[in-house]
Amino acid sequence: MYKGIVTMSRKITIKNIAEMAQTSKTTVSFYLNGRYEKMSQETREKIKNVIQETGYEPSIVARSLNSKRTKLIGVLIGDITNSFSNQIVKGIENIAQKRGYQVIVGNSNYDPESEDRYIENMLRLGVDGFIIQPTSNFRKYAKISQETKKSLVFFDSQLYEHRSNWVKTNNYDAVYDATQACVQKGYEDFIIITADTSLLSTRIERASGYIDALTDSSLSYATYIIDDGQTTVEDISLFLQNTVRADRKTLVFVPNCWALPIVFTALKKMKFQDMNIGLIGFDNTEWTDLSSPSVTTIVQPAFQEGEQATKILIDQIEGLDQEERQQVLNCSINWRESTK
């Protein structure tokens, strides 16, 4: 039986482990890939002890040659800069690490061409599957799945054009309920400041929740479409100055995470905390509780969304569950000073 700690200046290989455990390289490879059916408990313990003593870490490439899996997951995010995406990635990595997988993350910026490049590069690296925040070009995902035989799980969007695996939040219901609550608070005029809703089903759901809640209460609304990277604080300030009536209680809804701080800055210039203007947005919890005034937000369980998407994907990769799975998680509403 192997005993003692070995200090080696060169990189330890499967061959070294096999020699120390007094077994074959094939047996060590089987052990690393969880194939224990033809292995005695004594042999398993020997290999386990050697690996622990040497601190051996098998390379992804070496393991993939034997298992035909790379243990790599490709993750494609629309916008990595906001807190929602950060929490999604943390949730994905939490489950991936527990299941022995590594994660490659790409930021598409909601650009279909950029998305295509990331997918092609990830396929060249041999990823076992994808977790994707999709753009509106849904048909290509069905083609990718069919041609590459790779498992795909979508988050933050529900694909209507073909059957698929996805995890999302109840965006429509959460916005509808929050808007109805604001109607009850006495708001009279309503504004939605949003990015182009045609790019993502999530944007459609949020805008529809707002509009339907107002329609059901026989209320009208004004709309301002913003362009990420193009619309400035001054642009929004000018729109609000021309739209908001001083004698009316007005609610401003911002469904895009990245747009909320821009709109908040514009409203601060107007000193909206001293006016009859309310503000409600999505996520941004890293600053909305600390701002003055603090901002009411609909908060998505992003970490849990990332975890659930990863569980579904890995189960499919490993053949544990081949049924299509869809899951809807509930948002929460943090009522703060901006809608007092």
Helices and strands, with pairings:
Layout: H1 14-21, H2 25-32, H3 41-54, H4 60-67, E1 72-77, H5 83-98, E2 102-107, H6 112-124, E3 129-132, H7 139-148, E4 151-155, E5 165-169, H8 171-184, E6 189-194, H9 201-216, E7 222-225, H10 233-243, E8 250-253, H11 260-269, E9 277-282, H12 285-288, E10 296-299, H13 302-317, E11 326-329, E12 332-334
Parallel strand pairs: 1-2, 1-3, 3-4, 4-5, 5-11, 6-7, 6-8, 8-9, 9-10
Antiparallel strand pairs: 10-12
Helix pairs in contact: 1-2, 1-3, 5-13, 8-9, 10-11
Structural description of this entry:
The chain is of the alpha/beta class and 340 residues long. It folds into 3 domains: 14-66, 434 Repressor (Amino-terminal Domain), CATH 1.10.260; 70-169 and 302-329, Rossmann fold; 171-300 and 333-339, Rossmann fold. Helices cover 44% and strands 17% of the residues. It is built from 13 helices and 12 strands. The chain has helices spanning 14-21, 25-32, 41-54, 60-67, 83-98, 112-124, 139-148, 171-184, 201-216, 233-243, 260-269, 285-288, 302-317; strands spanning 72-77, 102-107, 129-132, 151-155, 165-169, 189-194, 222-225, 250-253, 277-282, 296-299, 326-329, 332-334. The strands form 2 sheets. It has a 6-stranded parallel sheet with strand order 2-1-3-4-5-11, with helices on both faces. The protein has a 6-stranded mixed sheet with strand order 7-6-8-9-10-12, sandwiched between helices. β8, α11 (260-269) and β9 (277-282) form a beta-alpha-beta unit. α1 (14-21) crosses α3 (41-54) and α5 runs parallel beside α13. Residues 1-9 have low confidence and may be disordered. Residues 12-67 form the HTH lacI-type domain. Keywords: DNA-binding, Transcription, Transcription regulation. Pfam families: LacI, Peripla_BP_1. It comes from Streptococcus varani. This is Sugar binding transcriptional regulator RegR.
